[in-house]
Amino acid sequence: MLTLYHAPNSRSSRIVTLLMALDALDRVDIRLTDIPRQDGSGARDPNNPHPEGKVPLLVTEEGEMIRESNAILLYLTDRFPSDLAPEVGAPGRGAYLSWLFWYGNVLEPVYMHRLAGLSHPVLSASFRGMPEAVAYLAAGLDGRAFLLGDRYSVADLLIASPFLWFPEATPDVPAIRDWVARCAAQPCIARSMEFDARSAEEMGLAPA
């Protein structure tokens, strides 16, 4: 059985969301774990084998550890095929992979730089800036309900996640705002939030 190390209301929540969307939650052993939080709460859990004490971490039946959200999402969608992600060789696979890795390689670094108030020509040259990232996302949604077309996919689940956590960060672009609203309305989002609320209560954590 696969094992997921998960901290409620964290980056690993989107992995739980995917498992719910795939109807595969019962095929993964979810180990609740504490992590250090940006507000100073939480602490590293010695039972979490992640080298940095972070989440998400997925451990396969063979004992291999998979880190990073986009790597875990890709592994799970290949492991449990569904209409949430194109299979290898299917139309749209290239776009799917590109969006998954654009999130980790561009959008999240750019978002964190802005949040931290960091600006430097090297950062701009490597990652671009938030205006460029917003323009790229808006262009990808032009004429589409979701990033891969008319159907919600794991690319939407991942890339919309920071805007679902921090609605005030959603770019003031109609196509993006409407897309975020469509993503938020997916049943797996509400189910995942309920799961995290129960898990946080079980761990004695303050509500998010």
Could you explain how this protein is built, in words?
By secondary structure, the chain is an alpha+beta fold. The protein has eight helices and four strands, in the order βαβββααααααα. The protein has helices at residues 13-21, 69-79, 93-116, 121-127, 130-141, 154-165, 174-184, 187-203, and strands spanning 2-6, 28-32, 57-59, 65-67. Strands 2-1-3-4 form a four-stranded mixed β-sheet, with helices on one face. Helix 1 links the parallel strand 1 (2-6) and strand 2. Helix 3 packs parallel to helix 6 (154-165). The chain is globular, with a radius of gyration of 17 Å. The mean pLDDT is 95.
Short note summarizing the structure:
The chain is α+β, with helices and mostly antiparallel strands and 208 residues long. The protein contains 8 helices and 4 strands, in the order E-H-E-E-E-H-H-H-H-H-H-H.
Q: Roughly how many Å is the radius of gyration?
A: 17 Å
Percent of residues in beta strands: 5-15%
Main sheet strand line-up: 2-1-3-4
What string, H for helix and E for strand, traces the elements in order? EHEEEHHHHHHH
What percent of residues adopt helix (DSSP H or I)? Answer: 40-55%
Sheet of most strands? 4 strands, mixed
**Mean pLDDT value:** 95
Shape: globular
Low-confidence stretches: none
Quaternary organisation of the protein chains:
single chain
